Amino acid sequence: MAMKEMIKINQLNKSFGDLHVLKNIDMTVFESDVVCLIGSSGSGKSTLLRCLNFLEKKDNGDIIIEGNTVNPRTDDLNKIREKVGMVFQNFNLFPHKTVLENIIEAPIRVKGVDKEEAITKAKQLLSKVTLEDKADVYPSKLSGGQKQRVAIARALAMEPDIMLFDEPTSALDPELVGEVLTTMKTLADEGMTMVVVTHEMGFAKEVADWIVYMHDGKIIERGTPDQFFNHPKEERTREFLNSTMLK
Amino acid sequence: MPSFSHFFQILNETKGVFLKAMLLTLELTVVSIILGIVIGLVFALLKISKIKILELISDIYVYLVRGTPLIVQIFILYFGISGIFLLPDFWAASIALALHNGAYISEILRGAIQSVDKGQFEAGRSLGMTKTLTLRRIILPQAFRRALPPLGNQFIISLKDSSLAAFISMNELFNVATTLGSNNFDEMTYLLIVAVYYLLLVALMTLIVNRVELRLAVSDR
């Protein structure tokens, strides 16, 4: 096993005031792993994800990205964020920029990529998410599913090593969920390292290498989809699965 | 009340002097708006800096300006400062108007910046953009667009407020109207004439603001 550790978390703790939302979290994500974080709302899974690109500041514990223990006080977080792409529940596309401008903004301004080159790359990414005809459209003209696929293309334009997804399909109409999940599956098949907070059990079952189940700020159980869905070890997990599977 | 024909006769006879005065009013207004936007942006950014002392500075500035009449501010700058060094009338009036506008504009911009969804900032940061870059490229363009209607309102107010420069003997529209009016024992005619000039300027200003609004609204269509 000479697999590269992309993310390693040791004893991570995070509180919002009196609310202890992450309790001694340990987790390792290897290269090309797809990890699905699941759990009911308020379990801390989104906070954990947001800690991974330092949109939330940890209280204590270590976050090690590609072998480097990150110190948010002294390290350049912008450099780390370049390597860790993020896709949000509410897309957060820039409404005053066209689809193409959304995608080329950071490569040009942050990485200093030549504009022509950025546009060529952006168009490739748009065809990858099958939206090549939407380059010059403003986000307000897109459906939710299209917005999220643009958001994925925008994150990919920075050529990240890791992609984080924060409930990427939760704000979508049911009929639009599939197109986003398909895009994510393609990405997973290409070997992208992904951490996905999701309620889509079907996706987790089919695409994830590892399932991490969180409850009340703690990791209760982790395993392969087969272990997790078919042979859960913890009582708490069984309760959760029963409640979600019954719909 | 003056008769129509009298009104139009005077309007025609005085158009040279009023156009000159209108130009001065316009200069005062434009300079004070441009400076006011710069001042307003600086204090809006101080206010949202989350650094206590900077927030306090911004609060005090806004309080002082909003808490005193503009005419008092103009006089303080004109008489107070001219005791220290000679400030040309035009700049005394422009700076006073700009400082005054700046306070209101800073509140308009602060509100607009804070109304931009927090997710926009996070999206910028998540792409590796610095705080400054995210503010400049992502937040401010959206905030400015939202601020335009209240800003347009503020621009109109500052146009009309420029009439207070008459009290430090600037020959802008209002001063010319009252001077000519009393010289000719015909105040009402000249006041009505100056009202027409102000209405023309406000119409022009509204037109420009609407144009800009329309151009920036392109992303909604």
From TrEMBL, chain A:
Molecular function via GO: ABC-type amino acid transporter activity; ATP binding; ATP hydrolysis activity
Keyword Transport: yes
Pfam families for this protein: ABC_tran (PF00005)
Domain annotation ABC transporter: ranges: 7-241
SMART domains: AAA (SM00382)
Alphabetized UniProt keyword annotations: ATP-binding, Nucleotide-binding, Transport
The protein, known as: Amino acid ABC transporter ATP-binding protein (PAAT family)
Automatic annotation (TrEMBL), chain B:
Subcellular location: Cell membrane
Keyword Cell membrane found: yes
Keywords assigned: Amino-acid transport, Cell membrane, Membrane, Transmembrane, Transmembrane helix, Transport
GO molecular function: transmembrane transporter activity
Membrane topology: Multi-pass membrane protein
Keyword Transport in record: yes
Residues spanning the membrane: 28-48, 60-81, 188-209
Family listed: Belongs to the binding-protein-dependent transport system permease family.
Matches recorded under NCBIfam families: HEQRo_perm_3TM
PANTHER family, per the entry: ABC TRANSPORTER MEMBRANE SPANNING PERMEASE-GLUTAMINE TRANSPORT, MEMBRANE COMPONENT OF AMINO ACID ABC TRANSPORTER
This protein's name: Amino acid ABC transporter membrane protein (PAAT family)
Species assigned in the record: Ureibacillus chungkukjangi
Species classification: Bacteria, Bacillati, Bacillota, Bacilli, Bacillales
